[in-house]
């Protein structure tokens, strides 16, 4: 399991190839890439800056991956999240999960992403034609994470 | 002494990213610390008011108002997260 916070871009193909290299038990790899949109709340976004809490951010994502490993068959997982200044169409985040079967890979990947959105300490600040503003948290992200709560 | 760190909108509004605070004996939990900071008035009172969406962590673990704090702890206050 690997968690990396970095300013540099990433090569998703190379990262995914490395994730499953040498492990013939892997039958499925699910991945998600988050990308900077050029519009938010109806305003054109020129650029975005991501801030994090060094130490806690890595720890929080490792805990989320640990929860995924406890719930699904995860042979390996990778999370790369960029910080610093990004422009529209830039990649922000990569989550990749290798598993024996697709069901576990899909579920674990989506779970990690939904939890990351609501629990990992990152904050986005965007520059639009109206000036610079901090992005507000969305209730829909809380609802997405809540779906994974175990019942009973 | 405790270390208190602030992030994102809070860091900017409060004008500081980190400070050392000597805890009065009466402050034992996060609620107590928040009240101590609010008592500074101005931006502190506005940004940390009870109705503002402020999150907190003690030693890099998400915590709540009744979480105990002690000398040597690292306390963080920040807005709801918006990564991904």
Could you characterize what this model shows?
The complex is a heterodimer of chains A (152) and B (84). Chain A has 152 residues and is α+β, with helices and mostly antiparallel strands. Chain A contains four helices and nine strands, in the order E-H-E-E-E-H-E-E-E-H-E-E-H. The longest helix of chain A is centred in the last third of the chain and has 18 residues, at 102-119. Chain B has a single domain (2-78), classed as Beta-grasp domain (Ubiquitin-like (UB roll), Roll), CATH 3.10.20. In chain B, strands 2-1-5-3-4 form a five-stranded mixed sheet. At the A-B interface, strand 4, helix 2, helix 3 and strand 8 of A face loops of B.
Briefly summarize what is shown.
Chain A has 4 helices and 9 strands, in the order βαβββαβββαββα.
Write the layout of secondary structure elements.
The complex is a heterodimer of chains A (152) and B (84).
Chain A: E1 2-6, H1 12-20, E2 28-35, E3 39-40, E4 43-52, H2 56-71, E5 76-82, E6 84-86, E7 91-99, H3 102-119, E8 122-128, E9 131-134, H4 139-146
Parallel strand pairs in A: 1-5
Antiparallel strand pairs in A: 2-7, 3-4, 4-6, 4-8, 5-7, 8-9
Helix pairs in contact in A: 2-3, 3-4
Chain B: E1 2-6, H1 8-14, E2 18-21, H2 30-38, H3 42-47, E3 55-58, E4 61-63, E5 74-78
Parallel strand pairs in B: 1-5
Antiparallel strand pairs in B: 1-2, 3-4, 3-5
